C-alpha cells in the first residue's frame, strides 16, 4: 500500500489525474448542493402558499356544508312542528 501511494505522489501524470478528480468531486458537490438548495427554496416559495390556500378552501367548503346541513335540519324541524300543530 505504501509503495502504491508513493508511486502516485512521484508520478506527475497520476498527480495531475488526482488533482483533476479532486476538483471534479468538489465541483459535483457544489453543483449538487446548489441544485438541492434551489429545489427546496422553490418548493417553499411556490408550493407552500398553494398548499395553504388549498387547506383554506377545504375549511371553507366544510363550513359551507355544515351550514347547509343546519339549514336543512331547521327546515325539517319547522315542517314537523307545523304537522304537529305547534307554532313555528
From TrEMBL:
<keyword id="KW-0813">Transport</keyword>
<keyword id="KW-1133">Transmembrane helix</keyword>
<keyword id="KW-0812">Transmembrane</keyword>
<keyword id="KW-0472">Membrane</keyword>
<keyword id="KW-0496">Mitochondrion</keyword>
<keyword id="KW-1000">Mitochondrion outer membrane</keyword>
<keyword id="KW-0653">Protein transport</keyword>
<dbReference type="GO" id="GO:0005741">
    <property type="term" value="C:mitochondrial outer membrane"/>
</dbReference>
<keyword id="KW-0675">Receptor</keyword>
<feature type="transmembrane region" description="Helical">
    <location>
        <begin position="36"/>
        <end position="54"/>
    </location>
</feature>
<comment type="similarity">
    <text>Belongs to the Tom22 family.</text>
</comment>
<dbReference type="InterPro" id="IPR005683">
    <property type="entry name" value="Tom22"/>
</dbReference>
<dbReference type="Pfam" id="PF04281">
    <property type="entry name" value="Tom22"/>
</dbReference>
<dbReference type="GO" id="GO:0006886">
    <property type="term" value="P:intracellular protein transport"/>
</dbReference>
<keyword id="KW-0811">Translocation</keyword>
<protein>
    <recommendedName>
        <fullName>Mitochondrial import receptor subunit TOM22</fullName>
    </recommendedName>
</protein>
